Amino acid sequence: MTAPPLHLAVALDAAGWHPAAWRAEDACPTELFGADYWTDLVIEAERGLLDFVTFEDALGLQSAAFHRPDDRTDQVRGRLDAVLLAARVAPLTTHIGLVPTANVTHTEPFRISTGIAALDHASTGRAGLRPQIASRAADATHFGRRTTPQLTDEDVRDPERIGRRLSPLFDEAADAVAAARRLWDSREDDAEIRDAATGGLVDRGKIPHIDFAGEHFGVRGPATVPRPPQGQPPVMSLAHARVPYEFAARVADAVWVTPHDRAGAAAILAQVDAAVRRTGRDTRARPLLRFAEVLVFLDVEPGAAARRKARLDDLDGAELGSDAEVFTGTPGELADLLLDWREAGLDGFRLRPGALPHDLLEITCGLVPELQRRGVFRTAYDATTLRGHLRLPRPASRSARASRTDL
To answer: What is the pLDDT of residues 285-305, one digit of tens each?
Structure first.
């Protein structure tokens, strides 16, 4: 049986995922906080027919340390708000999915659901959501309403230990996503009448309160935005250990994992499957797509990508470290790796370009044509929504289902 087409996405962040990428010869450091920079990147990703792009975000400045701020001034610090950035790009693109990161530890579910619903309308059905917890205790000081666990140097050496320490935040995040999903369903698809002749703008009976009551949130609703074009924008999460695997199994449509070889991919997917079983999720009714992350440096000339990465390492003063596999090579060699890892059971990949725009262009102009030649990647978009690209059906509104049940 022919394998389904490979899913391919790109993670956009600053000048690239190498901390010295802003010093690369073709980098655009003066443009990082301008809309045109991001628009050009997303348009290029769409030209390459990718499923979606993601926008990184956080509630504090980037840091060389996972768990605490630093005072470095030789690396990019600061980002544009990911949801607002995606909304700015949306009208200038037509097919590619747009998945911003949104913090769910210090942001209310009502606000997140509204922002993503608005993005889905602005993009006519191409929005997604990457919910993120605030893993750094320092982020809480920006809000002054609560504290969160302070991870130690020993904690951050072990993803499982991080997951255990932050487990309450993941539980809260699951509540936040559940509330957001209920809000997306709080207005039926045909609740908007907009009949000027009769004066009927909405059918109030099709906009019920959700009265969501979770362990961490109580949200009355309903949403102030009409139901998103996709019904439910896809939710995606990055996971490295048991607790975040269970979070993905509970709330996500796609999980991003970080293996370092094919055997590691198989072992991680077995852990994801175990998390699915523990949470009782029926993947026939609610599929969970599995993407692997790879941080890539690509050049057509053999050895050029490794030399380019080594130069950036020298500029930064340290060899690049990452939770994901760091690949240096040609587009053909990366295609070999992706198709090998895919045999472990992966549905696709989220690639992190080491330096922008260089490595994004190598993905769209080198990797994509290579995958197309091998018959494993689309040659044209065949859907107009993110759910369509991911082969996820559009779900019916829970409000509508409840109304039919009451009849």
So the answer is: 999 999 999 999 999 999 999
